[in-house]
Amino acid sequence: MPSDTDRCAQPQRRSIGARRNPETEAAILTAAQELVEEKGLRGLTMEAVAKRARAGKATLYKWWPSRGALLVALYHASKGEHRHTDLGSLPETIAGFYSYVFGFWQTPAGRLFPLIIAEAQSNEDVADALQDYRQERLADLTALVSRAQARGELVADTDSEALADLIMANAWMHLMTGRIAVTDPAKLAHDVLRGWCLPDGSSA
Amino acid sequence: MPSDTDRCAQPQRRSIGARRNPETEAAILTAAQELVEEKGLRGLTMEAVAKRARAGKATLYKWWPSRGALLVALYHASKGEHRHTDLGSLPETIAGFYSYVFGFWQTPAGRLFPLIIAEAQSNEDVADALQDYRQERLADLTALVSRAQARGELVADTDSEALADLIMANAWMHLMTGRIAVTDPAKLAHDVLRGWCLPDGSSA
Amino acid sequence: MPSDTDRCAQPQRRSIGARRNPETEAAILTAAQELVEEKGLRGLTMEAVAKRARAGKATLYKWWPSRGALLVALYHASKGEHRHTDLGSLPETIAGFYSYVFGFWQTPAGRLFPLIIAEAQSNEDVADALQDYRQERLADLTALVSRAQARGELVADTDSEALADLIMANAWMHLMTGRIAVTDPAKLAHDVLRGWCLPDGSSA
Amino acid sequence: MPSDTDRCAQPQRRSIGARRNPETEAAILTAAQELVEEKGLRGLTMEAVAKRARAGKATLYKWWPSRGALLVALYHASKGEHRHTDLGSLPETIAGFYSYVFGFWQTPAGRLFPLIIAEAQSNEDVADALQDYRQERLADLTALVSRAQARGELVADTDSEALADLIMANAWMHLMTGRIAVTDPAKLAHDVLRGWCLPDGSSA
DNA sequence: GCTTAATCGAGACGGTACGTCCGGTCTTCTG
DNA sequence: CAGAAGACCGGACGTACCGTCTCGATTAAGC
């Protein structure tokens, strides 16, 4: 069984002086990603990351002062800059949103997300980072809802942010309870929007 | 100087034969609960629980093979058998529901819940236990929604289980993102139900 | 991998009333012997013996109150009642003695002996049992030496017990230092007796 | 009530970089020695040594992978570099040898020796270390015997190494059977050499 | 025949020590 | 002076036995 330290083919990185070495950073993030993919979150230990990345533990702690910080960095590094597109009608748009995130959460990078939520329950740093991320995504969703509202798709006094929050809550709930692979995004969007959407042509 | 072996000041619990000793079980759950209350969740280590309960570690692992299993047992032992009451109108009922669960989740016992959800993300057993618990609560909620539907409070084709799921998702979302202490349950219930509730007296 | 508890083919032994069950005793000694042969002394735990013998731990402790006691019983049960024979001349007799014991110490039963000596260093009970055994064997050897002395084979003022002790010490030394398989018994006997044996025909 | 985390009253030892810290090694050996002196050999557990030395258990296991290894190190650290002196005649010299070793084996450090022999019966590493030690001591003894032989004290064809082995075997035998405190070294030396020593003035 | 007493397998129990693992801090040495 | 390397202390992990105990079934001997 080859050990993690058998990866000595490439020459070890040297210091590049009194500056942060981007090679080292990349090696660390790559190593961390690989470890999570191979062994799950339990395999993501500072020790193992340092060894696989051929980096010193002090170097790790210098930039990512805790395991949680590394986790968040990892997620940020691997998530795309996806902006959800408006497909014309809100149910279709939200179905597209669910479809996209459920898909992403099933990729290696996306599989980190529930773990980050989990970690956030007992780690302040991660909780903060998660909160930021959520706000960002929420703004994105709220914009989509508002646009539909402007088009007259929704009941008159809809609070677009509350609805966006609800849409996101539904996605997270399905994630946390392991149902993202078995739920139909279109049905889910339909159910969540049922009460809010006016019948076609009924706009004031 | 007390010797290293001056144990057994108070009489220790004895075996009751080749059967599980309920005294021991109680002592362990009590010790675990105390530890969580005193030192938070980081203080809930198998080691500490065993020491405080004056129980052997092997005994702990025999009945609760993991920290997660202990967590779930703890939660089950301390949660009441609360059944949410129908307050006549759905918004009020759901406001009461949110009010109750947000309150409970801020008690020492309730604070275990987000940790259980977190644990479930990487622990099959806990995930299963959580799933069972969720189904139970969902049925409870669904019944409340159905009753309101029968009263004609909701739009005609409401899927009561989907709505119940949504209501619960909203609660969980607020829990996972640390907003249960700052959110008004009535406002939350109002927002979540906005689209589904018919205006008073508008039932067919 | 079959566990020790797969041996449920035969019906378990029952009590035969208020008397010691010889079947049980035999099963325990057999199980103990097998465990030592299969896994070495480290495998001889009270727990494992009880399990393999399908006996209760209390039964074990009733008759053999310690691991050391079991070890000694085991050795006594398996050693033969060998009496070393006088082959006419002392060097030959002692060569025969070395040959026999070195052979025996290489059988499964004999391999227990160094372990008993080892155990005796930190276990009073075993030390006592070992002492008794040594005295027994020493008397045997002393008799052989005395007979040779009577035949005039030895220097006049030989202390036969001291010489017997020396002969035995040499055997034990070879055992403890792992040389019984590589030493020629005849050469050993010759060396140990070199000083004491008179040349042939030189007897007074 | 002192918190569970009020550690570090006295300053702990720090790392000295990626090299073995001699302070730590010394602290561990000292702690081990003290434990043996205070509580006997049963008190020499890795756990207790680590705790008393304020060392991590991992550090212990890194340098001394087993209790046996620690035992050997302890013995080597505490035995002096004694060279047995030639007192002019072999019986006197050997009497001195027995006297010295029996004395040493009754000191705290010396009491480790039978345990090392015991450990060697089931631990390869210890067996090797013991073998080396025995060879060293045997060479020492053989030299003494050879000198006596050169002086014409011994029968002509004496195998000095075989005799030295015998002398040592006798010492070990007395050690293993708990007789070092009750045996007269001079008598023992006399008995062991009886056959080999020529009467005074009888050398060829 | 009925009671009594001892013995049986089973295994739970409180403990102790094991040997492993990781967290987070530190120091040295290499470029 | 950044960085690789890795030693260090602390402490939780999960496992393995120890020796004690209680249970309920079983059976011989004493009444």
Automatic annotation (TrEMBL), chains A, B, C, D:
Residues 22-82 form the HTH tetR-type domain. Keywords: DNA-binding, Transcription, Transcription regulation. Residues 45-64 bind DNA. PROSITE patterns: HTH_TETR_2. Residues 1-21 are annotated as: Disordered. It holds the Pfam family TetR_N. Gene3D superfamilies: Homeodomain-like, Tetracycline Repressor, domain 2. GO terms for molecular function: DNA-binding transcription factor activity; transcription cis-regulatory region binding. Signal peptide: none annotated. This is TetR family transcriptional regulator. It comes from Actibacterium atlanticum.
